[in-house]
Specification:
Blueprint lengths: L1 E2 L3 E9 L7 E9 L13 H5 L14 E8 L5 E13 L1 H15 L4 H7 L4 E11 L4 H17 L5 H10 L1 E2 L12 H4 E2 L7 E2 L14 H9 L1 H12 L3 E6 L2 H15 L7 E3 L16 E6 L12 E5 L4 E3 L13 H13 L2 H4 L14 H19 L7 E5 L5 E4 L1 H8 L7 H6 L1 H10 L3 E2 L3 H8 L1 H7 L3 H19 L31 H17 L10 E2 L14 H23 L2 H14 L3 H13 L6 E3 L1 H16 L9 H9 L2 E6 L2 E4 L13 H23 L5 H6 L2 H11 L5 H30 L27 H17 L9 H19 L4 H31 L19 E10 L20 E8 L2 E8 L9 E6 L3 E6 L16 E6 L3 E7 L5 H15 L8 H4 L10 H4 L5 H23 L35 H20 L1 H9 L4 H6 L6 E4 L15 E4 L4 H8 L9 E5 L6 E5 L8 H4 L9 H20 L2 H5 L9 H6 L10 H11 L62 E6 L14 E6 L4 H15 L8 H12 ...
Helix pairs in contact: 4-5, 5-19, 7-8, 7-9, 7-12, 10-12, 12-18, 20-21, 20-22, 21-23, 22-24, 25-28, 28-30, 28-31, 29-30, 30-31, 35-36, 45-46, 47-48, 47-51, 48-49, 48-51, 51-52
Length: 1898
């Protein structure tokens, strides 16, 4: 029973303090005056009676009623029912009050009285009931009755009524049923003829809401209220505003009712008085109501959600995010609410709506809404009881909730809302209140336990949901109104409008005595009555269904998971059965499967089955597998371990172990420490509580004896606890104490156990080293098995918390042991205090923990020592790559993984094929290459070898990368990962294995950097090959004995000196420095001083002149041998002898003006210039051109005699710039004219050399060259009077300024794609018909009709930007063709994009499309189109008899490309192997293409980056080759070979930037006759020649040239193909361009397939994309036939013939056969050779494309490297040596050995003496030498035809000691002198005689 009301109070108005306009409340009377013991009087009631403040009013207001809620210090709520009415205030009364105040404050009062005089005022007076019960209506009635008695003057005395009000008691709950009539308990009367029925709720745990909830929804709407509900649960601040106090109370009450079963535990003030408004800025959450008069004060609250009840709005500040309910619950709740609140909505669209829609009454609606929320909570918290841990039962149950497991099972870990609710205070209260297993239950418990299934089933159906809601609402309603039958109230109400009565007497003063007496009497009566025993209703709380595994969102996942789990199970079975190979195959799949939760749980279950007797001893491999699986399993667990995977693994990691040595065992925990979960204290707590619960349950299960065991087994811990709680009161005290003590010691022993467990998982294996530096990522060294992050994570989480808590710094706080001890201490403190362990025990634990940790560290030390001795895990053996001769290893293999790049073939992408990548192996660094060699990680492809390599010199980019997760099973985090990109289109994405220390990876990078960018070219591989690996060459050693190299170097030095000196001595001429070329200079015109270097001698320095003269001769003789000179002779452009004698009949001569490289460093020594031009003129002309590259002839058309010239572009602004400098006085005219005139004269001389021009009578020898070619558009005479007059004379008085004509060719646009020539319309008056040119389909101009008219004799192709403003001249014979070309920078960026397109570093979703898109963006094909287009144009011009001068950029990039292509297209000779070599040597090497600079070969050129001008040229040749496959003697493979090796630095051919630089290094004229090992690296051409003799790899079988055919390829982009050199690779052997390396594997493979001869041999071979070398696996038909032929010859014992001879024979025979059979019927043999049929313009034909690399017939030919390659057509003037004549009929080697023996031979230059095996061959007339007697590969040959004499020699430095001087003899040939030494004098004599006799025979 409880009192209905505790206190009755009368509060009246009293004036406030002076200065405050308001009054204040004052308690007039309170009853009882003494406080109740159990319930003290609440302070501050007077504030709450008038929340807006006490004020006087000018009129009477109607009485008001509301309930304020006060919360006392024990968080008990007091309901203050305030009934307020107004009384008139008499002036005298007021004055009395004021007088009192005045006495206190001594203030004058006149003003106040004056103010008050005129009107009557009314003051509020409140009657207040204070109660702990919330019966609003009863209070309203009671106070109303008191007021009625007072107002209407009824006969009842107020004292009696108030007395009985204070003494009335009612039952708290369980509303006594009407049958057990207890009238006084529920029907009350206050003794004024009234009667009220008080309905007490059946269950007081359910809140009472009347209609407040429904009202709240009406005021704010569904969404707003849901928002407020979520905000309240997630602990935000909520403020209600309304002008009605009662509404505020109702709204707050409603919000609390919705939160049931959670209880709100923060500040709750439904009506906040004005004086307390500052409470709103409290930092804690609250629910508060405030009158809307104070709305403005609430504006500045930034973190408060404001709900305006009157306006129906909810305002949420920007800084607040409200987490809403998780879907689908949010949607379901909204739907259910709308069903309840707006039933019409469902019917709104019906055609025939039902006539009546019965909306429930407001009271019923209120309960329905609450039912919706009750269901919501039941669904949210469904299964919560299964996550409760009961850790003590006696004396009081102690219960903890396992949040992580609950969230994990609900699948809501990532959710925003539920985790916040579970962390909140309300939920903590919920666990405390509802956790105990034995207590009263209510509607919520039943709902959770019994209705879960029903709610799940109802989900889709609105009707069923509504039915359930109505049922629940019914129960809620019944709880509030248990017996609706007797709701008969009889309470008097005052008469209408009584408050307006004028003469109302004031409320009387009540008689305290009477009331007190009534109260005392009632209390005495209560005490004497027997106590009411309330029936015990406790029972065991049902748990409800356990949380089933919630369906995974995607159905597919489930389908797959069964198969995945099968794989996991199989793999574990294999591991334990020792089938390691099988397990290894499944392991990657298992590790991938670990992403899914089911697989992780399956793994833990399976491992559990394999643990016997708590300990499973494994061998090393099994241990390794299990640890890998555990680690992979744990890495996907979060730190809270919501799925309990870490929890189930915890016992396993202390069970699995391996024996390291007798007595030392390593457990799995030492290898799985680096996961965050072990450093999370919440995880350990949950684990601990779970274990304690199991033990305590066991305690009581065992205690009950063994009978009916099976039933007991199934009881959960909570059920057992409920039983114990029921029995507890019946037990004896001793029994109770015994149970308490048992439970306590159980908890204590678990605490000790956990201290041990935690030390296992927190102490790293190598504790000695790991002094924890907080920032460092790694604890311990690389060997400490996989314990990388543990130290960091614990250091972070533990250290911070400890240092702040302990308050003192530990001396060794960085020590792991200390961290761990403190971490465990903190854990133990928390769990032991919560679970009630006694203080003595706790102290004991603190003493024990450091010892436990110390012991564990000691055992770990031993384990660590032993684990280091373990042989490392069996990783694949590192395969060593084969190296070239002279290639040396710089860094031995570092174990790495090769990652897949964007090329999907190798990774087994959509194309199919095996996943070769990722592969596991090692990366090797040699002096020449970076090589990866290994095997695929995929076990199914494991036998294959994967090789990927590229030359170091071709590396274009090296960067560190991070690899995506797809290969995470191999790569430990934190390992270095590199991406190396090469311009040979290779990409190495490597991740270093964890065993590779990061220092090694850094060293690798440093070495790579040094090798890639050497200090000087002489440090590149081509120079250092074969030397011992000393990084630098010693300069001293070179100078010891002078050789040709030093001489040539001196020559260059002196040339430099001479050039420098000539200016100093004469002081007549100063050459412009590079920068000032464009600005003003003086050009002296003194003809006596011909500036010719050869004549410039300084008489003072004779020493230098003596050096120059002999070398002069040598230079000349060597220059003649250069490619240029051979080609000049072939083209009939003159020989050196004729040029020196200056025979005038030749139009051109070879000028030696540049033989000292004095005029132009980047030109060759000998140049072709017009016969009529003097050398000194050349020197002057050269200054007008960039880099002094003046126009020289490089090719002449044999038919039309038109010449092709090349030069650099003109300087800066053209020479015009030199004449037009405004700020300096104009120079003398002589100089200006002379240079321009000489340029003019030069061009005219070129034109004169052309035969058709000479026939035309050679008129107009001079025309204003400057005006057309050089000067700006405003070439007026005023500035150059002399020039103007001269031109007037020449042109017959016409002024050049007035004549203007459009440029001949318009411009070839840079637009690229519109690939036809866009010729401008104003082609000039010369064009017949002035019509626009139509173009042929192949993109070249139509029949050169436009050239038939008045054609220019010389076209100058120049850059449009340089030729701006040029005005042509009608009388000239040259024409300027301005074109737009791209520069080297564009080539560079285009190539970068091309590389990314062909070898993307990351896979793209749709590779095909991505490739084409990025290919287009690179614009590489556009550039190729451009080059081909211009080349075809030039070919047309030359073919129609006009000469062309290509004068672009510096004359060494695009110019070289164009000039080379033009020659290749025009002259069939250049399409042979020999001719192509000559072309490249002449145009690219001699004319100074900057290979070193463009290839970024040295440190100096590193910044300029890689610009593949030469590669672009080769790509163009490849495009032409595709269109004309029968015109080229060489194959596509030859082009790829050059593309690869021009960047590889294997050969010296493509190093350095010009002949001058090569001469300086002594490379240009290396001694000819000597061939030895290092020779391999000298010239790529020699290598090609030797290889070509062995195998037809470079030969194109379709070669069948037409005589003199000029090729005109299509250049449209649609005709161009992407070169397969960019896209193909062979991972089986690496790039196939280092021929020696690729040969070995093939032969081994052949042998491997032979042994089993009797089995039927399958002829099938599997070719894998990206892996096999197709052309080798499946050679073309001709190579196959040649191979068969060779094997037949071997069987018959014949000496094999050379493939070339065989080929030529067959072709000759086939030609004869074709002539003999004119009808065209051809034999099968001829079909094979059909390519030699006569054919029309063959670019239109369709051919069989030959495969990328020709076959590999490794014919064992005679190894005669000396004989020159078989003469091919068009080799003119080559001297045939006798050896060539014999090469047709060759007999076996042995017969050719006339005499043989060993001799010492002196090497070339400073090389040492070496013993060699010499063979004298009379038949071939040769002296051959070999490395040793058994060597079959000939190292060199001396042709006896070249021998001049044999003389006795003298020993030189380094000669063999102990040998007689007379044993030395010298052999002099036309090329050099050979020094020999025999073992003794007799042998020497024999050799001399034999050689002499050979010579005399010849």
């Amino acid at each position: 029973m409880a009192r209905l009301a505790d206190y009755f109070v009368v509060v009246a108005f009293a004036p406030g303090k002076r200065g405050s306009g308001d009054g204040q409340g004052q308690i007039l009377q309170r009853f009882p005056e003494k406080d109740w013991e159990d319930n003290p009087f609440p302070q501050g009631i007077e504030l709450f009676c008038q929340p807006s403040g006490w004020q006087l009013f000018g009129e009477r207001n109607a009485p008001t009623f509301f309930i304020a809620v006060l919360t006392d210090i024990n968080s008990e709520r007091h309901y203050c029912a305030c009934f307020t009415f107004w009384e008139a205030v008499e002036a005298t009364q007021l004055q009395n009050c004021l007088r009192k105040v005045e006495e206190e404050e001594e203030e004058m009062v006149e003003e106040v009285t004056a103010l008050i005089q005129p009107a009557q005022l009314f003051a509020p007076k409140s009657l207040v009931l204070v109660s702990r019960l919330d019966h609003a209506e009863v209070f309203r009635n009671c106070l109303g009755l008191v007021y009625t008695i007072y107002v209407d003057g009824l006969g009842t005395s107020l004292e009696t009524v108030i007395g009985s009000l204070l003494t009335c008691t009612i039952p708290i709950t369980g509303g006594a049923q009407p049958d057990m009539e207890d009238e006084g308990a529920r029907t009350i009367s206050l003794g004024a003829g009234d009667r009220q029925v008080i309905q007490t709720p059946i269950n007081d745990s359910l809140p009472i809401s009347n209609c407040s909830v429904a009202l709240l929804f009406r005021q704010l709407g569904i969404t707003n209220v849901l928002g407020l509900f979520c905000a309240a649960l997630t602990e935000h601040k909520i403020l209600f505003l309304s002008s009605s106090y009662q509404r505020l109370t109702d709204a707050c009450r409603a919000l609390l009712a919705l939160m049931f079963p959670l209880k709100y535990s923060f500040t709750y003030v439904p009506i906040l008085p004005a004086q307390l408004l500052e409470v709103l800025s409290t930092p804690t959450p609250f629910i508060i109501g405030v009158s809307s008069t104070f709305q403005s004060e609430t504006q500045e609250l930034l973190d408060v959600i404001i709900a305006d009840l009157d306006g129906g709005t909810v305002t949420i500040p920007e800084c607040i995010h409200i987490s809403l309910l998780p879907e689908p619950l949010l949607h379901q709740t909204r739907e259910a609410l709308s069903l309840v609140l707006d039933p019409e909505l469902e019917m709104a669209d019906l055609a025939f709506p039902p006539s009546t829609i019965s909306a429930s009454s407001l009271k019923m609606q209120d309960k329905e809404i609450r039912a919706v929320f009750l269901r919501l909570f039941a669904q949210l918290l469904q299964g919560y009881r299964w996550c409760l841990h009961i850790i003590r039962i006696h004396p009081e149950p102690v219960i903890r909730f396992h949040k992580a497991a609950f969230l994990g099972q609900r699948g809501l870990v990532e959710d925003d809302f539920l985790p916040k609710v579970l962390e909140g205070m309300a939920f903590a209260g919920f666990v405390t209140e509802r956790g105990p297993p034995y207590r009263d239950t209510d509607l919520f418990d039943e709902l959770v336990a019994n209705e879960a299934k029903r709610m799940q089933a109802d989900e889709g159906s609105k009707v069923r949901v509504l039915r359930h809601i109505k049922e629940l609402a019914e129960q809620l309603y019944k709880n509030e109104n248990p017996y609706p039958a007797v709701t008969m109230h009889k309470v008097q109400k005052p008469t209408e409008g009584c408050h307006l009565r004028l003469h109302q007497r004031p409320f009387p003063r009540l008689d305290e005595g009477t009331i007190q007496w009534i109260v005392d009497q009632a209390t005495a009566k209560l005490q004497s009555a027997p106590p009411l025993v309330r029936a015990e209703k406790k029972c065991m709380v049902p748990s409800g269904p356990p949380l089933g595994v919630l369906m995974e969102r995607h159905g597919i996942v489930l389908a797959n998971s069964a198969r995945r789990l099968e794989v996991v199970r199989n793999c574990i079975t294999y591991v334990f059965e020792g089938k390691m190979l099988e397990a290894k195959k499944l392991l990657p799949a298992v590790l991938r499967a670990m992403k899914s939760r089911a697989a992780r749980q399956c793994l833990t279950q399976e491992l559990n089955l394999h643990v016997q007797q708590n300990r499973a001893v494994l061998d090393h491999q099994q241990f390794d597998f299990i640890v890998r699986m555990m680690n992979c399993c744990l890495q996907d667990c979060s730190a809270t371990d919501e799925h309990g995977v870490a929890a189930t693994l915890l016992p396993l990691v202390t069970a699995f172990c391996r024996k390291l040595s007798p007595g030392i065992t390593q457990f799995a925990y030492s290898c799985v420490q680096e996961h965050l979960v072990w450093a999370t204290i919440q995880f350990w707590e949950a684990m601990f509580y779970g274990d304690v619960q199991n033990h305590i349950r066991a305690l009581y299960v065992e205690g009950n004896g063994e009978e009916n065991h099976s039933e007991k087994e199934e009881k959960s811990a909570l059920e057992i606890a409920a039983g114990q709680c029921r029995l507890w009161p019946t037990m004896s005290r001793e029994k109770q104490l015994e149970l308490i003590q048992k439970e306590e010691s159980t908890v204590f022993s678990q605490a000790i156990h956990y201290a041990n467990r935690m030390s296992y998982l927190l102490l790293p294996l190598d504790a000695s080293k790991s002094r924890l530096l907080r920032g460092s990522g790694f604890g311990g060294d690389a060997e400490s098995v996989s314990n990388s992050f543990i130290t960091n994570s614990i250091a972070g989480s533990v250290a911070d918390s400890y240092d702040t808590e302990s308050g003192f710094e530990d001396a060794e706080s960085s020590d792991v042991a200390n961290y761990v001890v403190r971490f465990i201490n903190r854990f133990v403190d928390k769990v032991c205090t919560e679970s009630g362990v006694t203080n003595e025990h706790l102290k004991g634990l603190h003493v024990m923990i450091p010892d436990i940790v110390q012991m564990h560290i000691e055992t770990l030390d031993a384990v660590h020592r032993e684990s280091k001795r373990l042989p490392p895990i069996q990783k694949p053996k590192l395969l060593r790559p084969s190296l070239l001769v002279g290639e040396e290893s710089v860094m031995d293999g570092l174990r790495v993984y090769l990652m897949p790049d964007g090329r999907e073939e190798a990774a087994g992408g959509s194309i199919g094929g095996p996943p070769l990548l990722p592969a596991e192996g090692a990366v090797f660094l040699t002096t020449y290459r970076i090589i990866f060699k290994g095997t695929p990680t995929d076990p199914l492809v494991g036998e294959q070898v994967v090789v990927r390599s590229f030359p170091i010199a071709s590396l274009t980019k090296e960067e560190k990368i991070t690899v995506q997760a797809q290969v995470d099973q191999f790569i430990q985090e934190g390992c270095a990962q590199l991406q190396l990109r090469s311009c040979t289109f290779q990409l190495l994405r490597i991740a270093f294995d964890e065993e590779v220390a990061s220092e090694s990876a850094e060293t690798f990078r440093k070495h790579l950097g040094k090798l890639r960018y050497p200090q000087h070219v002489s440090d590149t591989f081509a120079f250092t090959v074969g030397q011992s690996a000393k990084p630098a060459l010693q300069p001293k050693a070179k100078e010891k004995n002078p050789s040709l190299r030093t001489i040539s170097r001196n020559l260059v030095k002196n040339a430099k000196k001479t050039i420098g000196r000539q200016y100093v001595t004469r002081k007549k001429y100063t050459p412009p420095s590079w920068e000032h070329r464009g600005s003003q200079q003086h050009f002296p015109e003194d003809h006596e001083d011909e500036i010719s270097v050869s004549e410039e001698m300084d008489k003072g320095t004779l020493s230098s002149s003596t050096t120059i003269r002999p070398s002069d001769k040598m230079t000349m003789s060597h220059l003649v041998e250069r490619a240029c000179c051979r080609d000049y002779q072939r083209l009939g452009l003159g020989t050196l002898s004729s040029s020196l004698t200056r025979s005038k009949n030749e139009p051109f001569r070879i000028s030696t003006v540049n033989r000292m490289y004095a005029i132009c460093r980047s030109y060759p020594g000998l140049l072709i210039v017009p016969q009529s031009i003097q050398d000194n003129t050349i020197q002057r002309i050269s200054r007008c051109y960039r880099q002094n590259r003046f126009p020289v002839v490089c090719w002449r058309n044999a038919r039309t005699k038109a010449t092709l010239l090349r030069s650099g572009g003109l300087h800066g602004k053209g020479v015009a710039g030199l004449f037009k400098s405004q700020n300096t006085p104009a120079p003398g005219p002589s100089q200006a004219d002379s240079t321009s005139l000489e340029q003019e004269k030069y061009l005219q001389a070129v034109i004169n050399s052309m035969p058709h021009y000479a026939e035309a009578g050679g008129r107009n020898t001079l025309s204003g060259f400057t005006s057309a070619h050089m000067s700006g558009s405003d070439s007026s005479e005023k500035r150059q009077p002399k020039l103007g007059s001269l031109m007037k004379q020449v042109m017959g008085g016409k002024d050049p300024g007035t004549v203007s004509r459009g440029g001949k060719w318009g411009s070839i646009r840079a637009s690229g794609r519109m690939s036809n020539y866009a010729l401008t319309t104003e082609i000039g008056s010369r064009l017949a018909g002035k019509e626009l040119l139509s173009t042929q389909p192949n993109g070249s101009p139509s029949e050169a009709s436009f050239l038939r008219q008045h054609r220019a004799s010389l076209y100058i192709i120049g850059d449009k930007s340089q030729l701006r403003g040029v005005k042509p001249d009608p009388l000239q014979h040259w024409e300027v063709v301005p074109i737009e070309v791209f520069d080297a920078r564009q080539v560079k960026s285009s190539f970068k994009k091309l590389m990314k397109a062909c070898v993307p570093s990351t896979p793209s979703p749709e590779p095909g499309v991505a490739f084409l898109r990025s290919l287009e963006e690179s614009e590489w094909l556009v550039q190729i189109h451009k080059i081909l287009q211009i080349s075809v144009l030039v070919v047309e011009l030359l073919d129609t008899g006009s000469s062309v001068l290509v004068s672009l950029e510096d004359g060494w990039d695009i110019t070289t490309q164009l000039v080379s292509l033009v020659q290749l297209l025009s002259d069939p000779y250049y399409r042979t192997l020999e001719g192509f070599r000559l072309l490249v040597e002449k145009e690219w090497l001699s004319f100074g293409h900057r290979f070193s600079h463009r290839g970024a070969q040295t440190l100096a050129s590193q910044s300029s980056g890689f610009t593949p001008i030469f590669l672009q040229f080769l790509d163009c040749v490849h495009q032409i080759h595709l269109q004309f496959p029968m015109e080229f003697e060489f194959s596509q493979y030859f082009l790829k070979f050059l593309s690869y090796h021009y960047v590889s630095s294997r050969f010296r051919t493509f190093l350095l930037d010009s002949d001058y630089e090569r001469l300086e290094l002594g490379l240009l004229y290396e001694e000819k006759g000597e061939r030895k090992g290092s020779q391999l690296s000298r010239s790529i051409w020699d290598y090609v020649e030797r290889l070509n003799k062995k195998t037809p790899i470079f030969f194109n079988y379709m070669y069948a040239p037409e005589d003199g055919e000029v090729l005109r390829p299509y250049s449209n982009i649609s005709n161009l193909k992407v070169w397969d050199y960019y896209t193909q690779e062979t991972l089986a052997e690496g790039p196939s361009y280092d021929w020696e390396l690729v040969q070995c594997p093939a032969e081994e493979l052949e042998e491997a397939t032979l042994p089993d001869t009797n089995a039927p041999q399958s002829r099938r071979k599997i070719i894998w994309p990206c892996y096999s070398n197709r052309s080798r696996t499946e050679p073309d038909a001709i190579s196959r036939l040649l191979e068969e032929l060779q094997s037949l010859e071997m069987e018959l014992g014949q000496v094999p013939e050379r493939w070339k001879d065989m080929w030529d024979k067959v072709k000759a025979f086939q030609r004869a056969e074709a002539q003999a059979d004119p009808s065209g019927r051809m034999g099968a043999s001829s079909l094979l050779m059909a390519s030699s049929l006569p054919h029309q313009r063959r670019s239109l034909g369709v051919y069989l494309q030959e495969s990328g690399v020709s076959s590999t017939i490794n014919l064992s030919l005679d190894n005669d490297a000396s004989s020159t390659s078989t003469p091919s057509s068009g080799k003119q003037g080559g001297r045939k040596s006798t050896s060539t004549l014999y090469s047709q009929f060759q007999t076996a080697e042995s017969e050719n050995r006339s005499y043989e023996g060993s001799l010492y031979k002196k090497g070339a230059f400073m090389k040492p003496w070496k013993p060699r095996w010499f063979v004298l061959d009379k038949t071939k007339h040769q002296l051959r030498y070999y490395d040793s007697r058994l060597d079959t590969e000939c190292k060199g040959v001396i042709d006896l035809a070249e021998v001049e004499s044999i003389t006795p020699g003298t020993p030189t430095m380094g000669a063999p000691k102990m040998v007689d001087e007379k044993a030395f003899f010298d052999l002099k040939t036309t090329k050099r002198v050979y020094n020999f030494c025999a073992q003794d004098v007799q042998l020497a004599q024999q050799w001399i005689d034999r050689i002499q006799s050979c010579l005399s025979d010849a």
